[in-house]
Amino acid sequence: MKIKKLYLIGLFLAIIFAAGILFLSGNQFLDKISSGCEIPSPDASGEYEEGERVAIFNNKPVSYQMTRLTEEKLDQEERVLGIQNDERWIEVDLSEQKLRAWEGGNLAYEFLISSGKWAPTPKGEFRIWVKLKYTKMEGGIRGTRTYYYLPNVPYTQYFYKGYGLHGTYWHNNFGQPMSHGCVNLSIPDAEKLFYWTSPVVPAGKNIAYPSKDNPGTRVIIHD
Question: In b/e form, how buried is each residue of 105-132, taking b as 16+ CB within 10 angstroms?
Answer without folding.
Answer: eeeeeebbbbbbbbbbbeeeebbbebbb
